[in-house]
Amino acid sequence: MPLTRSSPARLGLCLGLVLALGACNAVNRLATIGTPPPLSPVTNPTQQPGYRTVSLPMPDPEEPTHMANSLWRQGARAFFKDQRAARIGDILTVQIAIDDKANFDNATERTRTSTENNGITNLLGYEGSLGRILPQAVNPASLLNMNGNSAQTGEGKIERNESINVTVAAIITQVLPNGNLVIQGRQEVRVNFEVREFLITGIVRPEDISSTNIVRHTQIAEARISYGGRGQITDYQQPRYGQQVLDVLFPF
Q1: Whole-angstrom Cα distance, residue 126 to residue 143?
Q2: pTM for the full predicted model
């Protein structure tokens, strides 16, 4: 893309924003020197900035019909009332047992050799006059000779082994029109100067919640699971902001 007169100004503005963000983060880090990282307060997730309700395809609503002298109600999922989570604000337990393993091993090898020999023995009778045009004598039978040789070898290998075993309590934040439940669970554990954060959100069916009010992570649709940390150890494992900026801007 060609540069314009405003390109230096835009570049300066971007660099200024990057430096400002780095300065704000540096001030926050300097303010917490000697103190453990703070824990996040318990808040209503529906009131957090950027929170959006879940919108998914739903079946058409059905008007309930009451049948005289009947103990059953149309659309009812249970005869007796249970204590499983079913309404906004109810809490259920989520069991997460992830044992993911993947191995990929690919190898590619390609070799190509080509040779081209071309000559002009007859050129409208002027093949004998080529020596007058070129500084030295020319052999019309071997005017062009090309040799090519290319080789390519590629090898890739991926080994991944991930294991997470966590039990966390989640809260129902929304009940969809078809009865499915939107849940969100958050857990923070601080050990010395390191905070471990765990976040899970998704959609579950009331039928998948066991009688002990437990649901497995394999029964959560649109699951979003995040497990990480923040603190001194995590900070040392991250590259400096300047290095990250250079990795983004430098093409080589």
Answers
A1: 14
A2: 0.59
Phi, psi of 100 (to 5 degrees): -105, 125
Count CB-CB contacts under 10 A for residue 57: 5
SS3 call for 72: coil
Helix and strand totals (H; E) in the chain: 4, 6
| Complete edge-to-edge strand list for the sheet that includes strand 144-175 | 214-216, 91-118, 144-175, 181-191, 194-204, 221-231
At residue 18, the 3 state secondary structure works out as helix
Percentages helix, strand, coil for the chain (3-state, rounded to 5) are: 25, 40, 40
How much is the pLDDT for 3? Answer: 46
d(CA 9, CA 106): 47
- Asked if residues 119 and 143 have their Cβ atoms less than 8 Å apart, the reply is yes
Joined tokens for residue 137: 């004598």
3-state secondary structure of 198: strand
Confidence of residue 1 (pLDDT cuts 50, 70, 90): very low
> Which residues, including other chains, have CB under 8 Å from residue 224's CB and lie 6 or more apart?
199, 200, 201, 202
- At residue 205, the pLDDT reads 95
